[in-house]
């Protein structure tokens, strides 16, 4: 199968769009983050992603498939598998003319306490995200990062400060909320985080305690979870005694302190696979052909050095060509989970 990137992943032989960035007549959606959806006429997605899509983009004609269900669409068949990135996130297996192609979407192989556990899907062609496809991004064990989060929250509360945890409204906020509730903290949620969290509950996610919607006068002794785009907004700036914690995989980047000025602590807490897990994914998929996207071209070169047949998918290009020399992209060109974005429709 030919693979192109035209403001979204496109399979021209099948006329299939995946995660298109602009409106399409029909599009297959891997998950409902804002950089993977648009106001399409018709979508194919998991039931959870479809519900979150409607919340963010409004109504559309929806075809839902549960994980593991193989459905024939004539020239091709689709099967969804968990991606572990956020609730409902899916890897998409496309089968056509005897070939198995898997598009990972955004993926996290490590456990996610509020999303389905990702699996590795065997295939001939693997189209994989490579957001953290640099050896710099080897995340510490989750337990170590979580312990640093708890210690920071404890210090802030003991100093009569308000711990403000910055995490994207969909996915990372719910994961952080569950981890904080398990430790017995009282938690308040920014309105956009609250809305998505209520959808999680509607879809069957059970949280380990109660939480409440943000009220300006009810922050003392509580942890506030808010989207990163709020950090310079009056809601947070007007909290005189605050301690701001950013949750992002970019914490390991040397420029992180400059990117996130005004933040007291930046923790490498991510809902993406790190470098080691990306290599593991490539290896365990047993793919004969690997196409990388959403990251630096160098990851494809690293995979080739490790013995893989890998190439980088450049904008407006056909992945049957040697793409890895066609485009140079900053490793931070895909800001993790729209870290600097706030969508008040949430």
Unreliable stretches = 316-333, 335-346
CATH topology of the largest domain: Metallo-beta-lactamase, Chain A
Could you state the CATH homologous superfamily of the largest domain? Ribonuclease Z/Hydroxyacylglutathione hydrolase-like
Characterize the biggest β-sheet.
7 strands, mixed
What's the CATH class label of the largest domain? Alpha Beta
Total domains, how many? 2
Beta percentage is: 15-25%
- Across the major sheet, the strand order is 7-8-9-10-11-18-19
Task: Please sum up the structure shown.
With about 350 residues, the chain is of the alpha/beta class. Helix content is about 25%, strand content about 20%.
Give the SSE layout.
Layout: E1 4-5, E2 9-11, E3 16-18, E4 27-28, E5 42-45, H1 47-57, E6 61-64, E7 70-72, E8 77-82, E9 90-96, E10 99-103, E11 125-129, H2 142-158, E12 162-166, H3 172-182, E13 187-189, H4 191-202, E14 212-213, E15 223-226, H5 234-237, E16 242-247, H6 256-259, E17 265-267, H7 275-285, E18 289-293, H8 298-305, E19 310-312
Parallel strand pairs: 4-5, 5-6, 10-11, 11-18, 12-15, 12-16, 13-14, 13-15, 16-17, 18-19
Antiparallel strand pairs: 1-2, 2-3, 7-8, 8-9, 9-10
């Amino acid at each position: 199968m030919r693979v192109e990137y035209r403001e979204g992943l496109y399979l021209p032989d099948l006329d299939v769009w995946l995660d298109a960035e602009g409106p399409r007549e029909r599009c297959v959606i891997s998950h409902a983050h804002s950089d993977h959806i648009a106001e399409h006429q018709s979508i194919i997605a998991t039931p959870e992603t479809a519900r979150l899509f409607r919340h963010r983009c409004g109504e559309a004609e929806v075809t839902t498939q549960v994980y593991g269900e193989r459905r024939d669409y004539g020239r091709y068949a689709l099967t969804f598998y968990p991606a572990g990135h956020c609730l409902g996130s899916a890897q998409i297996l496309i089968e056509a003319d005897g070939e198995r192609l898997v598009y990972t979407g955004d993926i996290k192989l490590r456990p996610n306490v509020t999303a389905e556990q990702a699996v590795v899907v065997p295939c001939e062609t693997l189209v994989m995200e490579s957001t953290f496809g640099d050896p710099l991004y080897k995340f510490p064990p989750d337990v170590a990062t979580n312990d640093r989060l708890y210690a920071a929250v404890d210090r802030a509360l003991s100093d009569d400060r308000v711990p403000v945890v910055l995490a994207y409204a969909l996915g990372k906020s719910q994961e952080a909320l569950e981890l904080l509730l398990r430790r017995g903290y009282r938690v308040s949620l920014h309105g956009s985080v609250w809305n998505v969290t209520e959808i999680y509950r509607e879809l069957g996610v059970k949280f380990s305690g109660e939480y409440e919607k943000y009220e300006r006068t009810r922050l003392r002794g509580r942890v506030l979870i808010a989207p990163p785009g709020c950090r310079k907004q009056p809601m947070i700036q007007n909290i005189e005694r605050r301690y701001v914690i950013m949750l992002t995989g970019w914490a390991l980047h040397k420029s992180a302190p400059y990117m996130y000025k005004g933040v007291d602590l930046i923790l490498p807490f991510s809902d993406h696979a790190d470098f080691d897990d990306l290599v593991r994914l490539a290896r365990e998929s047993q793919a004969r052909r690997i196409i990388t996207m959403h990251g630096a071209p160098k990851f494809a070169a690293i995979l080739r050095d490790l013995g893989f047949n890998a190439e980088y998918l450049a904008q407006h290009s056909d992945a049957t060509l040697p793409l890895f020399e066609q485009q140079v992209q900053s490793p931070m060109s895909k800001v993790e989970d729209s870290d600097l974005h706030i969508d008040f429709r949430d």
